[in-house]
Specification:
The chain is an alpha+beta fold and 224 residues long. It has helices at residues 2-8, 57-69, 129-146, 160-171, 177-184, 216-223, and strands at residues 18-29, 32-37, 48-50, 76-82, 93-101, 112-117, 120-121, 188-195, 203-208. The strands form two sheets. Strands 1, 2, 3, 4, 5, 6 and 7 form a seven-stranded mixed β-sheet that branches. A two-stranded antiparallel sheet has the order 8-9. Helix 3 runs antiparallel to helix 6 (216-223). 29% of the residues are buried.
């Protein structure tokens, strides 16, 4: 009988939360991992917005990035639902967190960044955006442990030194030069060209292979 009574109730008979999206956009700037933030009445926050009627989550996330941070065309994905009933003092709000990366050269000078250290922002963000950022860093590291620079934080070509330094920033860890080379070269191909940086010796330029998957041994190295 109770089941039948529940089935007869309309959706409007149930309390409903507001639904929001927030996007943790990570980049590497000045040899540090950083997250894009925007101003809010509660301090620095991730770009976010409330879902409009009939709107998909991905469309809302794209709208938030464009209108709040001036970032268009980013490749982002869902990383987790944040549903603590008290996460927003204004009321019951669920937020679908998204993660993204952006190359530093694609950022305008007006975009504000907060450094991330040990997986968390170095200063508090509004709401539970510290936790969202930490989850985005975990997601970033999982992806970088299995593929060469999937977020394209580097350009199409790069030296092994540039790649190693990027991975050291992403994983907040140092990697021995020869060990790093041994684990990543199977996912790289030489371009036949060299680069001279900082007045040093010419260094070979590499690019990602069409399927730049890293061996399991590399995943173990980066996750250690």
């Amino acid at each position: 009988m109770e089941t039948d009574q529940i089935a007869d109730k309309a959706l409007t008979d149930y309390p409903r939360p507001s639904v929001a999206v927030d996007v943790a956009v990570l980049t590497v700037h000045d040899d540090a991992l950083k997250v894009v933030v925007v101003p809010s009445p509660r301090g620095d926050a991730l770009p976010g917005t409330f879902l409009h009627p009939g709107e998909r989550l991905a469309d809302a996330a794209d709208r938030a990035l464009r209108t709040k941070a001036g970032l268009g065309g980013l490749d982002f994905h869902q990383i987790g639902m944040f549903d603590a009933p008290d996460r927003d003092e204004r009321g019951w709000v669920l937020s679908m967190a998204h993660g993204a990366t952006v190359a530093p050269g694609s950022l305008t000078t007006s975009v504000a960044l907060v450094e991330v250290h040990n997986g968390s922002p170095t200063r508090p963000l509004a709401f539970d955006h510290d936790a969202m950022t930490a989850l985005s860093v975990e997601d970033l590291r999982r992806r970088y442990a299995s593929s060469i620079d999937p977020g394209h934080l580097l350009g199409d070509t790069f030296t092994l030194l540039e790649l190693r330094r990027l991975y050291e920033v992403v994983f907040d860890n140092e990697f021995a030069k020869d060990t790093f080379r041994r684990h990543v070269t199977s996912a790289l191909e030489g371009t036949g060209e060299t680069s001279i940086a900082g007045g040093g010796r010419p260094a070979e330029l590499y690019r990602r292979t069409p399927e730049p998957r890293l061996p399991e041994s590399a995943s173990a190295l980066f996750r250690s």
